[in-house]
Specification:
The structure holds two protein chains of two kinds. Helices cover 81% and strands 0% of the residues of chain A. Chain A is globular. Chain A is built from eleven helices and no strands. Chain A has a single domain, classed as MetI-like fold (Orthogonal Bundle). Chain A is mostly helical. Chain B is α+β, with helices and mostly antiparallel strands. Chain B folds into three domains: 5-229, P-loop containing nucleotide triphosphate hydrolases (Rossmann fold, 3-Layer(aba) Sandwich); 234-282 and 361-370, SH3 type barrels (Roll), CATH 2.30.30; 291-354, RNA polymerase II/Efflux pump adaptor protein, barrel-sandwich hybrid domain (OB fold (Dihydrolipoamide Acetyltransferase, E2P)), CATH 2.40.50. Chain B is built from ten helices and 21 strands. In chain B, β8, α6 (167-181) and β9 form a beta-alpha-beta unit. In chain B, α4 packs across α5 (137-150). In chain B, 43% of the residues are buried. The chains are: A mainly alpha, B alpha+beta. Chains A and B meet through α7, α8 and α11 of A and α2, β7 and α5 of B.
């Protein structure tokens, strides 16, 4: 069991969730509340990571973060080391490929709130912040929870993109999915089996807990 | 301090509006009209949930909206109480917290005390901690009313508040609202498509069609004396016919019209010239069926007779369609209790006679629906 890799994967997943949570709430809320020209294209762009092969996405991220790109050069001039093949680079990639997993469930969650409920909040004198905090977030909570769990589980399991932009540096970019692959390459099927089982269990627990919680919320609200 | 609310809204699209309304403090104004006549849009404009192109809304001297001067006060600052058609309660909050959310300007302790008071006023004491899904339709409606009243609104807006409850509950809620309204000091605007509801609850009604306010006034007056044929149709008057004015007798306070060879006496309406073609209408309550076995009271008043061409039982009553002077002309519609119809041996094909009470005969300008002239907004 490669504890360092598991630890790194969990850290990467947690950081990705922390970054995408506020971002997803903002974007999901905005997309649910507003209709504008070109909205379909914006949604298509955000959904793109769902359909692109991880290697294609990884390739573009690699080019975007590499030493030849403005982003890569800027990062290197500030921190004195390259962005690619670092934990930060991996995190940036993880945030990008998880965008649809975070935003879509939250957008659906906000869209499910009846427009009159928002109107009623305005008529009751609630400010925008209070409406978001007291009315919209609690009502969109099942969607937000799904987004968090999907993002977390998906980050743990991602392989292609991580391999492209992270390489396999122990303690820095070698996640558990990569470690499993390494074990199989080294004919250590027992080691790969233990780690696969651990990943399976963590993902199942996370998704199961989310389903259980959302179904309980629904029963309570709809009697 | 208070002069109520004055509303003027105009726009050609997306929802056409041409409405002028006012409602005094403590008064209940009902907006009536078929679905799609713009009633809800007007309420939304008052609440600031819809912005009309032109017009102005003033409430107790404050300007909430002025299309020309670009004044716009946002919803949360208008202090309106709004009861939505499906109540729009906050589904995750208890009845108490639904009401408390509308009192944010008060300190927390005060908020809870006041919210309990308001809930008790709408007879929900003891149900404070229930969430909406566990309350009946009538109870949810009361929570919505309590929440709307919690802010001490400057105007109370009710959008078809009785449409989502069953008939028995509705009757009870009518009585409760009628009681409650005596304590209310703000203008109350009620949207409904149900004329009986408007009659029962409103001090004044305003008839709307395609966003236009056609006529406003005392409910009984609007329903029995509509300004135009269009209003007559909207308030459900079915007996609408054409006639010519024969003369006025100011002493007897009578205007005589000629209809299908009958000389009918109507209430004096000298604004119509002798010889002029008019449309006349009579409300159902002013038609009196004569007894067939012996003469009855009022028989001399505008008697007309005809053949029953349709006999349609509707519960306790029977709807009769009577052909007067030939079946090809618009018939007279009459509703009588079943027992009356039975006692008089009325069935299809029988000849009956009816008095058209002079007081109920109301004259209007000749049918305007054929000329697309715009009726005056009164």
């Amino acid at each position: 069991m490669d504890w360092t890799a598991l630890n790194l994967s969990l850290k990467l997943a947690a950081c990705t969730v922390l970054i995408l949570l506020p971002l997803g709430i903002w974007a999901g809320h905005a997309l649910a509340a507003h209709h504008f020209r070109g909205k379909a294209w914006v949604e298509a762009l955000l959904a793109l990571p769902l359909v692109l092969p991880p290697t294609v996405l990884g390739y573009y991220l690699l080019v975007m973060m590499g030493g030849a790109s403005p982003i890569g050069q800027f990062y290197e001039s500030v921190f004195g080391r390259p962005l690619v093949f670092s934990f930060e680079g991996l995190l940036l990639a993880s945030v990008i490929f998880n965008i649809p997993f975070a935003i879509q469930p939250m957008q659906r969650g906000f869209e499910a709130i009846a427009p009159e409920v928002r109107d009623a909040a305005a008529c009751s004198g609630l400010s925008r912040w209070r409406t978001l905090w007291r009315i919209e977030l609690p009502l969109a909570w099942p969607g937000i929870l799904s987004a968090v769990v999907l993002t977390f589980a998906h980050t743990l399991g991602e392989f292609g993109v991580v391999l492209m932009v992270g390489g396999s540096i122990p303690g820095e970019t070698k996640t558990i999915a990569i470690a499993i692959y390494d074990r199989v390459q080294a004919f250590d099927t027992a080691g790969a089996g233990v780690m696969s089982a651990a990943l399976l269990l963590i993902s199942l627990i996370a998704i199961g807990a989310a389903y259980f919680t959302t179904s309980r919320i629904r029963t309570r609200r709809h009697g | 301090m208070a002069d109520g609310i004055r509303i003027r809204l105009q726009q050609s699209g997306p929802i056409p509006l041409d409405a002028t309304l006012d409602c005094a403090p403590g008064e209940v104004l009902a907006l009536v009209g078929p679905s799609g006549s713009g009633k809800t849009s007007i309420l939304r404009a008052i609440a600031g949930l819809l912005r009309a192109r032109h017009g102005a809304i003033h409430c107790n001297g404050d300007c909430w909206f002025d299309g020309e001067a670009h004044v716009w006060v946002e919803t949360r600052k208008r202090r309106v109480g709004y009861v939505f058609q499906n109540y729009a309660l906050f589904p995750h909050l208890s009845a108490l917290h639904n009401v408390m959310e509308a009192m944010l300007e008060l300190p927390v302790a005060e908020r809870e005390r006041r919210a309990r008071d308001v809930l008790a006023r709408v007879r929900l004491a003891g149900l404070e901690h229930r969430v909406p899904a566990t309350l009946s339709g009538g109870q949810q409606q009361r929570v919505a009313v309590a929440r709307a009243l919690a802010r001490e609104p400057r105007v109370l807006l009710l959008d078809e508040p009785f449409s989502a409850v069953d008939r028995a509950t509705r009757q009870r809620l009518y009585r409760e609202l009628a009681e409650l309204r005596r304590e209310l000091a703000m203008p109350v605007i009620l949207v409904t498509h149900d004329l009986d509801e408007a009659m029962m609850l409103a001090d004044r009604i305003s008839v709307l069609h395609q966003g236009r306010t056609l006529q406003s006034g005392d409910p009984y007056a609007v329903m029995t004396r509509p300004d135009t044929v269009e209003v007559a149709q909207l308030v459900g008057l079915r007996n609408v016919f054409r006639a010519g004015v024969v003369g006025h007798d100011t002493e007897r306070k009578v205007t005589t019209i000629e209809w299908r060879g009958h000389r009918l006496e109507a209430r004096l309406q000298p604004e119509f010239k002798v010889g002029q073609q008019v449309t006349w209408a009579i409300p159902p309550g002013h038609l009196v069926l004569h007894r067939r076995d012996r003469p009855s009271r009022g028989e001399r008043e505008n008697p007309v007779s005809g053949m029953v061409i349709e006999y349609l039982p509707m519960g306790e009553n029977v709807a009769l369609t009577v052909a007067v002077n030939g079946t090809e002309r618009p018939p007279l519609f009459l509703t009588v209790p079943v027992h009356t119809a039975r006692r008089n041996g009325i069935t299809q094909g029988v000849e009956i006679s009816v008095s058209l009470l002079a007081e109920g005969i109301h004259l209007m300008p000749a049918d305007e629906s054929r000329t697309p002239a715009k009726p005056e907004v009164k």
